[in-house]
Amino acid sequence: MTRTGHASAPPAQHAPGYKAIKFNLDWITRPLFGIALAAVAIAGIFGGQAYIAVLGALASIAAAREWHRMVGERVFGPAFVLSSLTVAAALAASVWVQPAWIAWAVLAAGAGGVALYAHFSGLLPAWHGLGPIYIATAPLALVALRGAPHGALIIIGMFLAIWATDTGALIVGNLVGGPRLWPALSPNKTWSGTLGAVAIAALIESGFVAFIGGQPMLGALYGAGIAIVAHGGDLLESWFKRAFDRKDSGGLIPGHGGILDRIDSTLLTAPLLAILVVLGFNPLFGVHA
Questions:
Q1: Cα 249–59–144 angle (5° rounding)?
Q2: Containing domain of residue 175, as a range?
Q3: In terms of CB atoms within 10 Å, which of 138, 192, 252, 277 comes out highest?
Q4: Based on the structure, what is the number of domains in the chain?
Q5: Is residue 173 part of a domain?
Q6: Residue 274's closest CA among 97, 112, 94?
Q7: Is residue 288 part of a domain?
Q8: What's the whole-number mean pLDDT along residues 270-274?
C-alpha cells in the first residue's frame, strides 16, 4: 500500500517482479505492526465475545472515520459520530442484549439515521448510510462465531487463512510479477500473487486443520476458498476507493495504510463464514463444532 492520496494513472499491464524490488521502510514496519495486530486479535479471540466486541468497536470507529472522510464528510463530522455510536451500540447489544436480532436492528436503525442526516445535509445518503453496515457486519459476525462451539478455533482458522492470503499475495506477487489482476481497480495485484495467495492459504489452513485433528485435504480446499473470498473483500474496498479517487483509506497503520485497508478481507469473509456456520457448515472438518 502507498500513503493516502488520490489515485494515479493505471500502471503497466505487467509487474516487473523481483528485479524491481528495492528495500524500503515497509519491510520493517509492515511485519512488526502486522504481528502486533495479530497478537491483539488472538488475545481478543481467546478472551471471549465481550473482548471481540470491544476490539471490534474500536476498529469500527477508526474505520468509520476513514469511510465518512472518503465519501465526502469532514473529519470527525456528525455522520462519523452517528456511525460510531451505531456500531458501538450494536456490538454492545450483541453481547449483553437478547435476542440476537436486536443488535442487527440497532445497526439497521443507526445506518438509516446516518443516511437521513446525510440526505438533509446535502451529502451522499446511500454511501454514508452504507458505512456502518459495511463496517460493523464483520465484528457482529465474529461475536456470533465466538459463541458457537469451538468458536475460537473457527475464528483462528479463518484469520490464519486471511493472513496467509495477504502475505502470500505480497511475497509471490513481488517475486514473480507478471500480468496484473485488475489494473484499473487494484494496480498492485498480479495473477501470480493471487494464485500464490490461494496456494499458501490452502497450505496453512491444511496444516492448522491437521494440527487440531481434522481432515487436512478439506482444510486445504477451505483455505483456498477463504483466500478467494478475502481477495474479493480486498477488491470490493478497492472499488470503493476508486469510486472516490483514493489510493488508501488512510495512513493509521504504518506499512499497511488505513484500518479499512487492513480489515477489508475480513469485512467480507467473516459474515459469509458466519452464515455458513449457521447453516451447519463445520470449518474444522472432523473436530466436532
A1: 125
A2: 14-278
A3: 138
A4: 1
A5: yes
A6: 94
A7: no
A8: 98
